[in-house]
Design brief:
Layout: H1 8-28, H2 34-37, E1 39-40, H3 42-45, E2 47-54, H4 62-83, E3 89-93, E4 97-103, H5 108-116, E5 121-129, E6 144-149, E7 154-158, E8 163-164, E9 168-175, E10 184-191, H6 193-204, E11 221-225, E12 228-231, H7 237-244, E13 254-261, H8 262-274, E14 281-289, H9 291-320, H10 322-344, E15 348-349, H11 351-380, H12 385-417, H13 420-450
Parallel strand pairs: 1-15, 6-12
Antiparallel strand pairs: 2-4, 2-14, 3-4, 5-7, 5-8, 5-11, 6-7, 9-10, 10-13, 11-12
Helix pairs in contact: 1-10, 1-13, 4-8, 6-7, 9-10, 9-11, 10-11, 10-13, 11-12, 11-13, 12-13
Length: 465
């Protein structure tokens, strides 16, 4: 019996299936290596997982807590973007913690410094500088405090800053020409107009305009980052003269030196550009996954998917004959849809996500099995192949929708309330079940009704010789 002629709606279904197939192929090109095709999670390519405890948020109102965490997440995203870390995952964990996943990070110490640094920059007047790290200094006023430089030398400084990092518009690492052979760098700062005006006002206090904080030429001005003094340059006559002539001359003339390596200067410049965190954070959990373990996870996960995939492809035609071939085509299309959707939505593939893919392979076949058994029942009752196909799809539709929509809702709930591994599983499961519905109800039906496969459905009860 020849299959029925194509109608306009049939051509539309053909177009949709071809569009999905070709679009999936285009999104997945060049197919391998996998980490060039899609985002891989921490467990697949290695990297660093940090959990940050946000300090001093318990006393805040709930709305203020959320706002504080949102600001922290925004600043951290800006830092990792500028540092060049690929596919970071930074999100809330409750009201006082932030989860940071940095896949592919090769230097855990550098990542920890980048993420954990508050980056509170202050310019403080130095009251007294210690001779060496062995000398203890004791402030004689509540307006003063003791801070140390990176060599451990104490400084008594005023608590009230002359200027903070909020006045900066930019910070860039620069290589010192004099110290180039030693690989040492410094950081060039640029102020906003308001910041430069504030700096000028502070510098003009050197001439006695501000009697409350008398300063003189030769005084030290400490540049402090997170309560550590990085440099304490002396106020020179040239700086005073520049300040007298206006804010424009001091806008781009300030630097931070401190025997920085190039990488260290680059990192500090990044955190200064991104801005200081609104509150201090503490790293309470750190896990490092090596790239070797990640590659081994990919190999085992993909091997598991491939083995399960080919076992199903071989088994279905043996048991269901022509219907099994249709199920195999639907399975191939659904795998393409799943991986292409991960690329399209920039989702991250994780090891639990691979488990979701394996489960989806079974669920894709399950949807077809439900339909095929209905079709066989209709065929055994004496109906024609085409009538059996249409009746089989019609009678199995409610069962398919009930089972798969329930699973999709479960995946959605897991995605909303779960954390990293659970979300990875939920993403692939949700995409896979949605794809299996499309493949079963559109692609499989198209092949059976218009592809001639229905004609090979046996009339008798037997399904295999």
């Amino acid at each position: 019996m020849a299959h029925s002629a194509m109608k306009r709606t049939d051509w539309m279904r053909v177009g949709v299936v071809l569009l999905v197939f070709l679009g999936s192929i285009a999104l997945l090109y060049p197919f391998w290596p996998l980490d060039d095709v899609m985002n891989l999670g921490l467990d697949l390519q290695g990297g660093v997982r940090l959990v940050l405890q946000v300090q001093d948020v318990e006393e805040m109102e709930t709305e203020q807590q959320r706002d504080t965490l949102d600001r922290i997440i925004t600043i951290l995203n800006s830092r990792v973007d500028q540092f060049g870390l690929a596919n970071p995952e930074i999100k809330r964990m409750g009201l006082d913690r932030v989860l940071v996943n940095l896949p592919g990070t090769k230097d855990p110490v550098e990542a920890r410094n980048l993420i954990g640094q508050t980056a509170l920059l202050e310019f403080l007047k130095v009251v007294e500088r210690g001779i060496s790290a062995d000398v203890d200094l004791i402030p004689t006023s509540a307006a003063h405090q003791v801070l140390y430089d990176r060599e451990g030398i104490p400084h008594i400084v005023e608590r009230t800053p002359l200027l903070t990092g909020a006045a900066l518009s930019d910070a860039r690492p620069r290589m010192s020409q004099a110290l180039a052979t030693a690989g040492q760098s410094f950081i060039a700062l640029s102020f906003t107009e308001d910041g430069a005006r504030q700096f000028v006002t502070a510098l003009r206090g050197l001439d006695g305009d501000n009697p409350d904080t008398p300063q003189n030429e030769g005084d030290l001005l400490a540049i402090v980052l997170d309560n550590t003094i990085y440099s304490a340059p002396r106020i020179t006559a040239s700086i005073k003269q520049a300040a007298e002539q206006g804010w424009r001359l001091v806008k781009d003339t300030t630097t931070i030196s401190g025997r920085f390596t190039r990488d260290e200067a680059a990192r500090i410049a990044i955190v200064l550009r991104a801005g200081a965190l609104p509150v201090a954070v503490e790293i309470i959990e750190e896990n490092t996954v090596g790239p070797t373990l990640g590659r081994d996870s990919i190999r085992r996960g993909i091997l598991t998917v491939v083995i399960g995939f080919f076992i199903i492809l071989l088994y279905m035609p043996i048991y269901y004959r022509a219907l099994g071939v249709v199920a195999g085509v639907a399975l191939i299309l659904n795998m393409l849809i799943m991986f292409a959707a991960l690329v399209l939505f920039r989702a991250t593939l994780t090891l639990p996500g691979i488990a979701g893919i394996i489960l989806t392979i079974g669920m894709t076949v399950d949807a077809n099995v439900i339909i095929f058994e209905r079709i066989k029942e209709e065929r055994r009752s004496g109906k024609s192949p085409l009538a059996s196909v249409r009746a089989g799809f019609g009678k199995s539709l409610s069962a398919l929708l009930d089972a798969n929509i329930t699973t999709i809702l479960t995946a959605f709930i897991l995605l909303l309330v779960g954390t990293g591994p659970i979300q990875g599983f939920a993403i692939t499961l949700g995409i896979g079940v949605t794809g299996s519905l499309f493949c079963a109800l559109v692609a499989s039906r198209l092949l059976l009704e218009k592809g001639g496969f229905a004609e090979h459905i046996p009339l008798k009860a037997e399904t295999a010789s």
